[in-house]
Amino acid sequence: MSQEESMVTNAVTRKLHLHIMLRFCLLTVLNHMDRANLAYASVQLNVDLKFSDSVYGLGSGIFFLGYMVFQIPSQLMAERVGTNRWIGFLTLGWGIVATCMAGLTSNPTHLYILRFLLGAFEAGTFPAMWAHLTKFYAGGPDLAAAWGFIGAAQPLAQVIGAPVASGLLLTDGFLNLHGWQWLFLLEGLPTICLGIWIWLTLAPGPLGAKFLSAAEQDSVHQQVKHNRERMAKEGGEQSTMDGIRCWKVWAQGFGSGWAGIMRYGAMYWTPLIVFSIIKGKSAASGATPEQVKVSGAVAALLAGVPYSWSALVTYLNARHAKRTGEMYYHLLVPLAIGALALAVLAGALGHNTYVAFFGLILSSTSQASNPLEWGYPATYLSGPALSSGWAVANCISAYGGVVGPYLIGAVKAKYGGYTIPMIIMTAVNSLAVVYFAILLRFLSAKKAKKPDNCDEENGQTSPDSHEWRQQESCIARDAYMPNREGSLKVNDEHQQNRDTK
What we know:
This protein has about 500 residues and is mostly helical. It has a single domain (about 10-205, about 225-495), classed as MFS general substrate transporter like domains (Growth Hormone, Chain: A, Up-down Bundle). Helix content is about 75%, strand content about 0%. The protein contains 20 helices and no strands. It has helices spanning about 5-50, 55-70, 70-80, 85-100, 110-120, 125-135, 140-170, 180-200, 215-235, 240-245, 245-280, 290-325, 330-350, 355-365, 370-375, 385-395, 400-415, 420-450, 465-475, 490-500. Helix 1 (about 5-50) packs parallel to helix 4. The longest helix is centred in the N-terminal third of the chain and has 47 residues, at about 5-50. The protein is globular, with a radius of gyration of 23 Å. The model is unreliable at about 280-285 and about 455-500 (pLDDT under 50).
């Protein structure tokens, strides 16, 4: 590529980032903040509305039931009405629901309905975003690098969510509203504005995109078209049904769901566990209203420490996996560390505050395996099959979000305290390590022996080959982490190898 062509390509890339990735990164941050703000509000909300542990656990987890039920239908609707309009509609919808959370009453049914609706609206957002990116970015590496910006926005939401929530909770009593009501209102309204902005301005495709010149529109369109034609000739362009039928995404979805029992359980119970640690109690029921106001804000702020550690270790793990080209141990080790830390937390609760808090922080290390899990479908699926396969795996894995929060709440309600729930989470995480260790070895051995309906017959290569590991490094990790230069050219050498197949 000449210097002039390179400059044109970089200019187009900057325009794509400004028009698409800016909107999608903001959407991702608000998505995770609206999804998790119930956790930050939990200390105040549970006391004010007198919600039991079981009610709170079920209310947290029922979000993922809506997420599971509407995942595939939402994906199909995106293809019918257009991804740009559908993403705007979903964002507007969940922003309205998130804002309505400020009107919760002591009737648990209201909590269940709103959380279910929130999950239903959020269900199709990320698959629709992926499908929309495929209209503008050509090839696996370019697409992976673009998705990397979205992946980077996810831990950012966790890092900024805690101090923002803590500050809003301290507004308790202002204009006769509780702090948790201000939290839902002021985090839900920006999402509504973003949904309207996306609906009105997000381009449906490169042709006719006002932010590109006529020549740039044609260039982007031709690149995407050429890439799809090339993949079809290689046997890599698979249909939507290929992704749905592929047994590997079902197996991966089940494993990610099992690991998600602990992940999502921790997401919604961390502030309450922190409150328990700093107060030396198993619940907030013995605290005065003023103590709940202050301690709830402190617990929300301290809960940001495990979330921040999770974001940091996820980034470092993905970066090291990218540099070494190894996925197997980068997926398993964080899960194993998380299981060990949960055992430490269970043993220290009620005995040593500092050790318990250290165990809670370290347990969030298990989150670092999540990008590696979701990177695997890109190594054996492509095109429409990748979008549908990812949606299927995401749908299946949602059961972990349903089970995890409710399980912790139900067990805590029965036995009191968090020791028994953390012992159960230790066992769950340990089994997740064993499951993925067996699954990934089985996939490797099977793929090396013979093809199946989503392997070599579709133009893929053996997992034991150097090229397959290059594909892992290029697509899977970069799908959650952009390269240091921020360029869409993630792995030029790998792309050249694919082009000359």
